[in-house]
Amino acid sequence: MTDPRNAPPEIPSDIAFTPGVKAIQSRKGSRHAYARVEQGSGWATRITPELAAFIAAQTSVFLATANASGQPYIQHRGGPPGFLHVLGDRTIAFADFRGNRQFISSGNLAENPKAHLFLIDYATRQRIKLWGTARVVEDDAALVARLMPAGYKAQAEQAIVFDVATWDANCPQHIPQRFEQADVAAVLEERDRRIAELETQIARLTSARPARQGEGNP
User: Fold this and answer.
1) Strand, coil or helix: what is 168?
2) Sequence-separated (6 or more) residues with CB below 8 Å from residue 183
3) Is the CB of residue 94 less than 8 Å from the CB of residue 158?
4) Pair 81, 59: CB distance under 8 Å
5) Distances (CA, A) of 16 to 66, 128, 137, 168, 207
6) Do 172 and 128 meet the contact criterion of CB atoms below 8 Å apart?
7) pLDDT, tens digit, for every residue of 46-56?
8) Could you tell me the CATH superfamily of domain 44-170?
9) pTM for the full predicted model
10) Residue 156 near residue 98 (C-beta atoms within 8 A)
11) pLDDT attached to residue 201
12) Largest interatomic CA distance in the chain
């Protein structure tokens, strides 16, 4: 029998907008706006092609879990672009690399499968919040190999599979704009290449310029 506490809400955003949250929204004047959203299309429950492309471009993710008593924990996971895999329109997975071996997230998920993924792209000032459940997969070498980024020097200990219940995007307000080191290096390299090219052209034009009459005479 399915535990009713784990059943998805009829309104997807109710996974976050609990009665307590709605009460505060009403008191602070934002409930009416969110109610209109709930009456329309509301929050998405499937991964769209646009979201899949955003996920594939990310180099880090924050995974939030909580233990049976409700104590929360947030863990950062990173890797090259593509280390986050969209396995279906409701499933995201990634290789869980060997770290300090505290296994807090693993222990929390063993007690409480509810989880949250938070993705933020500083360059484009975009952030995505995903609610759902997650599980640790320890005994599937083929899955771990599939999720392991090619050529990445890390040891995959297991896999994390996240099943999406719903997701929402935040506005870019207050997100500082930052850029990946590799992207900045590529821009600077292109700038330096163009400067060298222009300097070569200037030198060639200067050497080819005919001397003016009387130039160089005492």
Assistant:
1) strand
2) 123
3) no
4) yes
5) 15, 14, 27, 10, 70
6) no
7) 999 999 999 99
8) Electron Transport, Fmn-binding Protein; Chain A (2.30.110.10)
9) 0.80
10) yes
11) 92
12) 105
Is 27 a residue whose pLDDT tops 60?
yes
Q: Are 149 and 83 in contact (CB under 8 A)?
A: yes
Q: In which residue are the tokens 């672009």 written? A: 81
CB 134 within 8 A of CB 115: yes
User: For tokens 């009665």, what's the residue?
Assistant: 19
How far is Cα 152 from Cα 94, in angstroms, rounded to an integer?
Answer: 13
Number of Cβ within 10 Å of residue 147's Cβ equals 24
Quick: pLDDT tens for 57-70.
999 999 999 999 99
| Six-digit token string for 110 | 């063993």
Half-sphere exposure of 148 (CA within 13 A, CB side): 17
Angle at 112 between CA 108 and CA 113, to 5 degrees: 100
Q: Name the amino acid, one letter, at 112.
A: N
Q: What percentage of residues in the chain have a pLDDT greater than 70?
A: 93
Q: How many CB atoms are closer than 10 A to CB 209?
A: 8
Amino acid at 60: S
Quick one: tokens of 17? Answer: 């907008």
Separation between Cα atoms, residue 137 and residue 172, nearest integer Å = 34
